[in-house]
Amino acid sequence: MITTPTAAVTSGAFRVEIRTSIEIDAAPAIVWGVLTDTAAYPEWNGFIVEWTGELARGERQNVLLQPPGGKPQRFRPRIVTLDAGRELVWLGRLGIPGVLDGRHRFVIEPLAGARARLRHEETLTGALVPALRRLLTETTPTGFERMNRELAARAEAAAA
Fold first, then answer.
1. Which tens digit of pLDDT belongs to each residue from 50-95?
2. What is the pTM assigned to this prediction?
3. Is 113 within the bounds of a domain?
4. Domain count along the chain
5. What is the pLDDT of residues 146-155, one digit of tens each?
6. Could you tell me if residue 124 is inside a domain?
7. Looking at residue 27, which CATH number applies to its domain?
8. By CB neighbour count within 10 A (0-12 exposed, 13-18 middle, 19+ buried), where does 8 fall?
């Protein structure tokens, strides 16, 4: 059974932080397997509809986001942290540093009873934050929550 996801958004002049989480009735290894099987994303993920690239620290990724009600957005973040089974962090930039930088983080935490919590977070900073504030504080968190629910459903089906 998927528990209700949680979301929190904080916003400053040139910074937005999005923090979402969901508890999943599947072992952390299963959740990690679903998260990192990026080739399968088109089958189930309505937010990150495409993700290619070698999952290794320092490697560039090719990611296509489909924000709810918005236009698809393609970008090429670089993986800055990869702790297998636990954490994956990428850093994406729009143009040069300081225009719009996004540190996207997935963390899987073990819970009692062969369950897991997925934390799906992003910190966005830069000169474009004020112009994109509505997209970043309303649309993007909705996309995170959608992906969280879809990932949980896939992991729980795999665990059954």
1. 999 999 999 999 999 998 888 999 999 999 999 999 999 999 998 8
2. 0.93
3. yes
4. 1
5. 999 999 999 9
6. yes
7. 3.30.530.20
8. exposed
What's the pLDDT tens digit per position in 114-143?
999 999 999 999 999 999 998 898 899 999
In order, the DSSP letters of the chain are -PPPPEEEEEEETTEEEEEEEEEESS-HHHHHHHHH-GGGHHHH-SSEEEEES--STT-B-EEEE--TTS--EEE--EEEEEETTTEEEEEEESSSTTSSEEEEEEEEEEETTTEEEEEEEEEEESTTHHHHHHIIIIIHHHHHHHHHHHHHHHHHHHH-
Q: Is residue 45 part of a domain?
A: no
Q: Give the domain extent around 14.
A: 6-35+78-159
Residue 145 falls inside a structural domain: yes
